Amino acid sequence: MKIKPLADYVLIEPIEKEETLPSGIVLPETAKEKPQEGKVIAAGPGRVDDGELIKMSVKVGDRVIYKKWGGNEVKVDNKELLLVKEEDVLAVVE
């Protein structure tokens, strides 16, 4: 299945960080926090403001940091993805 976001939505694949404590203990999934970093898989064309299209500031392939509790989870081809508004993307990681 292929998903193409509309307006100013961005489809993100969250990047899970392995959490290992300094002592070498690996935290299980249930003890980890939700990821806040991911890779942009798809992006909409942008939002319309006063009849003018404002293009997206992120593009496919960008690594981004997004709000912890923002967006909607969607499952595509057995992958957990996140559909968020562009305003919920906080930064691009360079």
Task: Throw out a few tags for this protein.
94 residues; mainly beta
Question: Could you explain how this protein is built, in words?
Answer:
There is one protein chain. The chain is mostly beta strands. Helix content is 0%, strand content 45%. It has no helices and 8 strands. The chain has strands at 9-14, 37-43, 46-49, 52-55, 63-66, 72-76, 79-85, 89-93. The strands form 2 sheets. Strands 6-7-1-2-5-8 form a 6-stranded antiparallel beta sheet, with no helix packed on it. A hairpin with a 2-residue loop joins strand 3 and strand 4. The radius of gyration is 15 Å and the shape is elongated. The chain starts with 8 loop residues before the first strand and ends with a strand. The model has no long low-confidence stretch (mean pLDDT 86).
Strand-helix topology:
Elements: E1 9-14, E2 37-43, E3 46-49, E4 52-55, E5 63-66, E6 72-76, E7 79-85, E8 89-93
Antiparallel strand pairs: 1-2, 1-7, 2-5, 3-4, 5-8, 6-7
- State the low-pLDDT regions, or none: none
Q: What is the share of helical residues?
A: under 10%
Q: Which outline best applies?
A: elongated
**How many helix segments?**
0
Report the mean per-residue pLDDT as an integer.
86
Please outline the major beta sheet: 6 strands, antiparallel
